[in-house]
Design goal:
This protein has 14 helices and 13 strands. By secondary structure, the chain is an alpha/beta fold. β1 and β2 form a beta hairpin.
Amino acid sequence: MWSAHDLIVAPATVPGGGARAIVRIAGDGLDRLLATLFTPERSGFAAADTRPRVVSARLAAAGLGREWGEIEVAILHWPGPAGPTGGPLAEVQLPASPPLVEAVVAEACRRGARLARGGEFTLRGFLAGRLDLVQAEAVLAVVDAQSPAELAVALDRMAGGAGKALGRVRDDLLDLLADIEATIDFADETAPDTVPTPLAHGPVGERLRVARAALAAELSRLGTRAAAAHDLPRVVFMGRPNIGKSSLFNVLVGRDAALVADEQGTTRDWIECRLEPPGGAGPACVLVDVAGVDGAGGGGKPLAARTAPGVAMEPAARDAEPATPAAIDAAAADIARREIARADLVVVCRDAADASAVPLPICIATDTRRIDVVTRCDRDAGAAIKADEQATSAVTGRGIDELRDAIRAAVAALPPRGSPATLRLAAGLEAAAAALAAAAAILEHGQADEPLLAAHVRQALDALDEVTGRSMGADLLDRIFARHCIGK
């Protein structure tokens, strides 16, 4: 059975290139272990109950120094209990040599420490009240960030913005619940000096409105940040050249976003437009129109000159001869392939006049959702439409609303995007908002059911406590923090 006071050690930086590496050590007995592993210079390590300090030191000559030499290290030392983990903590900065890092960790374990479990340092900070669960999960998001946008979102959460806002809402709801329950408890009292002022629905309604607005604002910010960190679902329109695919795309987005002409190959680049849900209900997505692809799709070498929008040009070949039409087609086909490969949903288009069963030269992954569409049905009223196809016409509007609804339904059915922490936070905020909406509905109907009102406010508090970690069981906390890297 592990304890929050165990002496633990782990590398806090990934192995590989770099100037410095960090080994993190925490727990009871830290001062004794540091004195064994390192020889401090000048003032020595920080004393208990003093401010943290950076200590210049060397590998102890009687220990690791015999094998590695008296290598200089810098130790950021928190003596406790005011440190990030609520107890003694040291971060040892040393040359980024994986064998050296392994030797320091092994020597610490040989002298009484144990290797930290994944997320154990962050868990200690959470248990000590140094950070809430929203911030703790943001640590994992920082580790897992795959883009600058994802990193920015994670750092923003780690700074505590969401946690502080939710803490204020929680405090307000606790005060409101206390007032409601006081009204219930003293309802039968008759002495004038013991009977509180009757619970007025107006003030309660206003307090509920403020709390609901705060939750709505946090949900909105959460959605905006998630959209910045994780691209919206991509819906790619694909088909052969000159089949009315771009005209269909323009009708769906409500403007002439894609160039349309009665000649093959009008679309060379990819064009994307955001499709918003009606009234803001449901997920948004990005519609993407790519070049039509026929059997002549090319191998995809970069073009020597910029001959089409979005087609790359090699810097060293700016003065080369213009690319041939075949090379342009090949580059456009490669762009289409890349977009189709990253699509969440593919709208496969065929012309009403084309009854060919010849498959398109671009394969769609078996796990990618698709909608099959027949375009330009106004030109061939007798076109055969299969049961799994949707007939459309950009000219008459036939099937446009149905296709738009099918796209929205397919996007809504996609697996949730974003990190588990983001999804759990959103679910908790939505549950709290629903409970407060039910409480507000009681007042709107003029009911004076204080016990039911209190029950809904308590449900909202329980939902907030789940996302901030105030009421989680040990098993669930272990699962959450176990996803962190060792040393975090």
